[in-house]
Design a protein that fits this description.
With 369 residues, this protein is α+β, with helices and mostly antiparallel strands. The chain has one domain: Gcn5-related N-acetyltransferase (GNAT) (Aminopeptidase). It contains 9 helices and 11 strands. It has helices spanning 7-13, 78-81, 104-129, 164-177, 197-203, 244-254, 262-268, 316-330, 346-352, and strands at residues 132-136, 139-143, 154-156, 182-187, 206-217, 235-238, 276-283, 286-296, 299-307, 335-341, 356-367. Helix 4 (164-177) links the parallel strand 3 (154-156) and strand 4 (182-187).
Amino acid sequence: MGEGVLGSLRADRGVTPAPRRVRDEADVGRPILGKVGVVPGDVTADPSDDEAAPGPPGAAPFDGRSTRDPGAGGVCSAGARRGCGTTIDAPGDLVPDPSPDLHPGELTRLRHADVAAYAALYTAGGPTIGTGQLPLDGALAIWNPHDDDPGFNYIVGFEVAPDPDRAWAMGEAAARAGGARVFGVGVTAERDGWATSSRLAALRLTFAYEEVVWARRLCASEVGAGGRGAGDERVQIRTDAIPPDLFAGVLNRGWELAEDHGRGRLYAAVIGLPDWTHYVAYLEGTAAAAAVLYRHHGVAVCVIAATIPAFRGRGLQTALITRRLDDAVAAGCDLATVETVADNASPRNIGRAGFMVLHRRRIYAKALP
């Protein structure tokens, strides 16, 4: 994480700071060809095409908070293919982003898909990695004792918990008992009044980073429109019989972590499980990038993606998101969602892929002694 939420805290604990935030879809880059009403372009040799190298979070905390609620379904139309919600230029005060194309039932579906993805992931990682979770009246506390990024140790869906103080207390206690080194909470516009300066100070919570949650509608007519390798014959994407160690290693190297780090192993733990698809992108025969797709009641969650630094700028992320959206539509999904951080190139690139902002979420966290 560098400085910010836990840089100094980790130093005090003798913990080596890990690269910041990696559930991020990470700089998808140029448009999904044929999908979003834009002119197709070259998908190779664009430095913005792939993940930017991990960097420090924004150093200065800010006053606003965020919003968190996705959706799915709806009429397949040119407008729907362009997405739903608003575009984003830069972090600012957290005001709910209007989502005119989404109705409450769609937002509920996406909220449920988000929580379901974390629940399945942390259940699978429990036996081998020690991850844990605790349901909190619609929200979910998750923790990974081998990871000190608060994005993997926090309360998901905090905005729906009927008693936020009780949810925080129960989540922190469970994470502490489960061996978590850090723990935090995702604050959205619905909980703007909860995250006051005095409360955050009393709980010793510090701003970590801001996430942006995006969504777009999917249409059956779009299947295959983007191609399987984004038009680059050098890129091949494999989804079957992926060795867990290979997959975990590619993710960890893409995040500039040790190849055997528990973060990659967490995502490898769901290989082969229903509703999960894992992808490894090969560039001229070398495994260079990896990604995950999760499906839940018609909602496609583009969970994570990472590119090994030496292979960035080669169109691999574009190929991976294109393939996942194609696969999602083929599986009957009518909405896709993805999360990014707010302070790198990801927002621009996700927008180019047809996604629109649904809401923002600010992560506040603390070290657990």
